[in-house]
Each structure stands twice: as structure tokens, then as C-alpha cells.
């Protein structure tokens, strides 16, 4: 055991004994603004794409089945960009640092959103979504890696979800701004009576304004991230012990001011210390160690099948409801009320996320997804029931996500944590891309012979089926990480 390894282990023990969040809460807000933008970008397409398809791609009307066909490649290529960014960019944070890469990824995401706002045909629109996806994929991996490394042992899911709460605000902003800026005014609940999408610039270019707002949010997030400290665990892994000790000392001081005294130091776990590590070495650390390779073999299919459900609903619920016979503004209103459930899922995990093993939340989540879909199918023209169903549905298909973010980050060592997260989440997103194309085609085939309540139930059960598979994989094969020290789980 080298002197540097011993010193690094002592600093990590000091970090692990802190039982509360001990960085400034401003930093949660800074990371949260980034999440707000990334999820704004994921969800802004849900409502606004109908106007984009009508005005830019010249489909026959807002209820045209062509919209679903055009949406599939858009979501698929965005997710391909996500996968590329996740697999190629986020592992660089294992090499050059979490904070540096968080600056780069936010800049890429903002440029992609600006490109979207300026695109003038389907090809450029697709390319813009790829660029944005590259930034989003890398950013989400690094943010979750960072949170996992600085959060207290008993609160990794809690603080991951606290940042995730900002993503629910971003999703809601994307949904409701889509209604405001891209749909014509309609009496509530068929739409928004004060919507701007019926005249003037918003009748044709409201969707461009949406992406322009996204670019502005990215710029704000980029400027705020200048103040983030580097992860002390990463600093230790790169032999920058004096910098790591300075950060941890500041964390101890802040925690001591809130608590009467800090707990005793836990046992020393010597960290892996090196002055540099390449992408290939990070990959080897994940793929050639049987422990981490087994975890990867569970997490990838869990994300793969789970994302098939998530992205069909996150990006396409408005389009699905329109194909089931709902007028587009009404479909958008129903989808937008889902953000209530989205917010509640983040609150649930903040309050209780660390009380159960990570895999158990996948089962709870899928139950609510099925219930929410059935409520919407049975509601038909009963708007209060539709709004309830949408909220329950969003609660269900999102509840497992922040917990699984924490789980994925916990499952790999500091020297390759971003790489391991990127492989799990990035490869898992292939399922999201496949799901949007395959499930959209299956739904189009189902509704071609006419829409009934029974058929609507079939549609939502079909969508939920893939999340059920994800939950079975997580529960039957998943490993335990809750309330254990990070370097004990993944040395």
C-alpha cells in the first residue's frame, strides 16, 4: 500500500463519514438547471412536433398518421446522438475531470438546440437532434456520476432525485410551452384559451421559439457551472490529493456548522490511484473485471427495455393520443398534466428512495405505468379521469429512473465510473430508439381498423410490456448497493 494510497483512503474516509449534503445547496441548483434544460429538450418535442410536421414537413394535417412516422426517426436519431455522446464523451470525464466535461457537454447541447431553431428542412432537423442528443447523453451520465461521488452514503438516491426534480420542471416547461406556443387557442380542457399558436409568428414558428428558449437555458446552465468544485473522489484517483483534501475540508466545515459533531471515521479503504488513465483502460476496468462486467450485463438490458417504454411515452404520448382519436390540443393538454406525476415521482424518491433496494423501485414503477395507461384508455372523454390517468402514467414510467441513475453510478469504480454509467445508460438507450420506431409501427397497425376502448387498453399494455421485462431483469438479477460506502461497493 503506497503512501499516496493511504492518504487518499484517509480523505475518502473523512468524506464518507459526513452524513448530510455538505456542499453548498447552490451547487444542486446549478446542476439542476442543467437537468432542467436537458429534460426540456427531451420533452419539448412531445407537443410541438405536430406543428413542426405541419409547417416544416408539410404533412396533410395535425391528425395525419404521417406525423408518427416522421417522429420515429427524429427520436431514434436523437437517441443515437445520445448514445454516441454517452459512450464517447462522458468517459472523458474519467480522464480530464467531471467539472471540465460538464462545461463541454452543456455547450454542445445548447448549440444543438440553436441548430434546431434554425433548421429549414427534415434533414437539418434530424442532424440538429443528433447534435443535441450527443450533449444530453454525455451530460446526464456525468451529472449522475458527480452527484454519486459527492452525496452522503445514505442519500445517493435522494440527492440524485433532488437534481432530477429540476428535470421534471424542465419536462413540464417543454410540455406547457409547447401548448402555449404551438397550438391554437381552444376552450379548456380542449386546449389553452390563451394559446398563441393560432396566429402570427407562433402559428408557423412557435416550435422555433421553443428551441431558441432551450438554447438560452443552456447558456445560463453553462455560466452557472463555472462555480462547481471538482469531485474529490476523482481528484484522489488522479493523485491530486491536496486539491481533494481542500474540497473535503470545506465539506467537513460546512457539515460541522450544521451538526454538533461528525461521526467517527470509518475504516480505511485504499483507493485506486494513478496519474492518468486512458479510455481503453477505463473500458478494461469495466469489461474485464468479472464483478463489473456482471453488473453491466444486468444494467444494460434493464435500461434497454425500460427505455422502450419511457421514450415512447415521453416523446410521443401526444401523438399516440391523437392516433387514438383525441384532437391534438386535447391530447397535448392530457400529456401536459402528466408532469404532475413526474414531479411526484421525484418527491417520492427524495423522501424514500434510500429506504428500499434500488431494484424494488422498478416493480413499484411498472405497476403505476399499467394503472395509468388503463385509466386513460377507460376515460375517453372524461377529462378529469384522463388527467388523473396521465399523472399516474408519468409517475409510473419515471419513478424508477432517478433510483436507477444512482444505482448505475454506484456500480462502477471511480477510475471508470462515468465510463460504466455511459455503457449502461448509453447502450440502454438503443432500446429507446428501437421502441419509438417499432412500437409506433405496431400502434399504427392496431388503430388502422378503428379505435375502441379495448384497443386503447391494448395499446397501453403493449407500451408497458417492455418496462415489465425491465423490472423482471432488475429484481431477479440485480445487485445490492443501498446505504453502502461507494468504495466498498465498487473498489
Automatic annotation (TrEMBL):
Source organism of this protein record: Metallosphaera cuprina (strain Ar-4)
Organism phylogeny: Archaea, Thermoproteota, Thermoprotei, Sulfolobales, Sulfolobaceae
Membrane-topology descriptor: Multi-pass membrane protein
Record-level Gene Ontology MF annotations: transmembrane transporter activity
Annotated TM spans: 20-40, 67-89, 101-118, 124-147, 159-181, 209-228, 296-321, 333-352, 361-379, 385-407, 427-447, 459-477
PROSITE patterns: MFS, SUGAR_TRANSPORT_1, SUGAR_TRANSPORT_2
GO cellular component terms listed in the entry, alphabetical order: membrane
Major facilitator superfamily (MFS) profile domain segment(s): 27-482
Primary location class: membrane
Source domain of life: Archaea
Database matches in SUPFAM superfamilies: MFS general substrate transporter
Subcellular location: Membrane
Protein name: Major facilitator transporter organic substrates
Keywords assigned: Membrane, Transmembrane, Transmembrane helix, Transport
InterPro entries per UniProt: MFS_dom, MFS_sugar_transport-like, MFS_trans_sf, Sugar_transporter_CS
